[in-house]
Design goal:
Blueprint (H helix, E strand, L loop, with lengths): L7 H15 L7 H7 L9 H7 L5 H15 L9 H10 L1 E2 L10 E2 L4 H7 L3 H7 L7 E2 L16 H12 L14 E4 L2 H9 L3 E4 L3 H6 L4 H5 L22 E3 L13 E2 L3
Parallel strand pairs: 2-3, 4-5, 5-6
Antiparallel strand pairs: 1-7
Helix pairs in contact: 1-4
């Protein structure tokens, strides 16, 4: 959701820079911003605080940043192409079987932040494409604490939410029949570890920062996260993931999706 469907990643960036400036520190570099994107609790990490060298305790900075984001998240807006893509997918059918597309949301964001981010009518309409029982957020009781992206659990739970709401005579959807759309490196790895195909739609800053490592990222092998279970990862150029510059570049026909005119 964040940075893929709505502009919340840019808002988080602005809020972080506001606090850094308050304490006389420099703004986030492109490299540091790229490392923080899509990672739960990243501004509380050793990596961030070793870089920032803030004159205040981490707890204070975290609380102030939370308040900054609380004030700003109500300004979230849909990103270009998001509404069109979700509208099309809700109307689309599998070209071979005729089956409709089943959509779920899997986001590290927590419930209180989610409510703020859908404050605007256009953002609320966008996220309404996902039925409530098919939204898996970072504080979902089905998700064990600390098991957010890049761990695959959130995508596997999202798949369970799809299968549990299908008609009784429908065949369960398998991981290799799923397509994950992600903007973050952690999310790409989570999708690959879940055994799903992945489309990476990175923020331009993220794309530039990791241009030389794009193949590794698409395989889930960025090397940034050390969580073990490497058997879950993909292989370079295995055709199971790709990168596109925006949601407007999504190729429906490539994935056997027919959208009625």
């Amino acid at each position: 959701m964040d940075g893929l469907l709505i502009n919340s990643e840019d808002i988080i960036h602005e809020a972080t820079n506001t606090l850094l400036e308050k304490y006389g520190r420099r703004h986030l570099t492109q490299s540091m911003r790229a490392k923080l994107m899509g990672v739960a609790g990243s501004t509380s990490s050793d990596m961030f605080h070793n870089w920032a060298q803030l004159p205040v305790p981490r707890e204070q900075f975290r609380n102030e940043l939370r308040e900054q984001m609380r004030l700003r998240f109500s300004d979230c807006e849909p990103l270009t192409g998001a509404a069109t893509l979700l509208t099309n997918l809700c109307q689309a059918r599998n070209k071979l079987s005729g089956a409709k597309m089943e959509l779920a949301l899997a986001s590290n964001t927590k419930s209180d932040s989610y409510k703020l981010k859908i404050s605007k009518p256009e953002t609320e309409r966008l996220l309404a494409y996902f039925q409530p029982e098919r939204r898996v957020l970072g504080d979902d009781p089905r998700l064990q604490q600390g098991r957010t992206k890049p761990v695959p659990d959130i995508y596997l739970i999202a798949l369970e939410s799809l299968n549990s709401s299908l008609d009784h005579d429908s065949k369960p959807i398998q991981p290799n029949e799923c397509l994950v759309l992600e903007d973050s490196v952690a999310g790409v790895e989570a999708g690959r570890r879940a055994g799903m195909r992945v489309i990476w739609v990175p923020h331009p800053i993220l794309a530039a920062a990791y241009q030389s490592k794009q193949k590794d990222i698409l395989a889930g092998r960025s090397g940034i996260f050390k969580i073990g279970d490497d058997y879950q990862l993909g292989e370079l150029d295995d055709g199971w993931a790709e990168s596109i510059p925006s949601l407007g570049h999504f190729d429906y026909s490539k994935y056997g999706i027919h959208v009625p005119l």
